[in-house]
C-alpha cells in the first residue's frame, strides 16, 4: 500500500467567526450550515478533505462563548471536546470584528470570546494555527496591527490570513495542514466528504434555509429532524422533515401567511438536496410545537451533545 497520511484538525473560534464557511471551503463541498446568525453549528460536524496522499478530517465546532443555558453549555463543551485526539488546532478569528472598534454588540462579543479561547488554549498548552478570517473586509494596515498583537500572545505556531468566503488563502492553509499531517491510514474512503448520514445532512440543509429566512423572528429555537426517507423506484427519494419550534406563535411565523415561508424554505432546501445527493427529491416539511425541547435529554443524544455538560 502506498504511504498514507491522516490528520484530525479541530476548528475552533468565537460564534460567527466563519468556521463552517472555512470547513466547507477546505472540503470543497457543503458539509456544514452557514448563516449570518451566531450559534449556527450545534454539534460537531466532520468534513473530510483529500490532498494527494493526505486525508484531513476537519471538525467544525459550535462557536465558543460564555454559556448560560443548558443547551449553550452543551454546545461549548462539544467544541472543546473536539481537541481530544486532534493532531492540529485551528483558531479562526473574525478579523473584521476585531478592527471594527465596536465596544458593544456582536463584534465586541466576538473579540471577547476569541480572547477567552486564546487564554484557554494557552492554559492547556495547545499550540495552534491562527487563522485570521474575513480579511476581504479589513483594510491592510489594521490587519497587520491585529496580526502583530495576536502573534505577541506567543501561542500560535503559524498565522494565515484568509477569506473563507472568497477562497483567498484557503489553499495555503490546506497545504500547511497537509504538510504537518502525521503518517497513518486514512480513516474514511477517499471519495467521502462528510461522516454524517444523509438524513442528518438533509436536516442541516433545511435548518440553514429556515434560519436564513426566519432569522429575525425565530432566532435559535429551531430544530429540524428527518422523520422519514423513502427510496422511490424511479431513483428519487421522498423526505419528510419536522421543524420543531418552541411556541405556537413561532409555528405561525415558520409557516407564514398562506404558507409562504415554509414553501420558500422547502423550495430552497429541496434544490440544495438535489445537488448534494445528485438525485430528484420530494421534500415535505411539517412544523410542530415542542415546548421545552431545550431540556429534553433524548434530543441532546441525537445531536451528539452531553446533557450534563
Ligand atoms: N466577508 C466575509 N464574510 C465571511 C467570511 N467567512 C464567513 N463569512 C460570513 O460570516 C458569517 C458566519 O459564517 P459561519 O461559517 O456560519 O460562521 P461559524 O463560525 O461557523 O458560526 P457558528 O456556527 O454560529 O459558530 C456568514 O454570514 C458568512 O457568510 C469571509 O471570509 N469574509
Ligand atoms: Mg458554524
Structural class: alpha/beta
CATH topology of the largest domain: Rossmann fold
* Bound molecule types: guanosine-5'-triphosphate, magnesium ion
Task: Estimate nothing, just give the exact number of structural domains.
Answer: 2
**How are the strands ordered across the major sheet?**
2-3-1-4-5-6
* Poorly predicted spans: none
Strand content: 15-25%
> Cα distance, first to last residue?
42 Å
Reading the helices and strands in chain order gives EHEEHEHHEHEHHEEHHEH
Fraction of residues in helices? 25-40%
Mean pLDDT: 90
**CATH top-level class of the largest domain:** Alpha Beta
Number of strands: 9
CATH superfamily of the largest domain: P-loop containing nucleotide triphosphate hydrolases
- Using the alpha-carbon principal axes, give the shape: globular
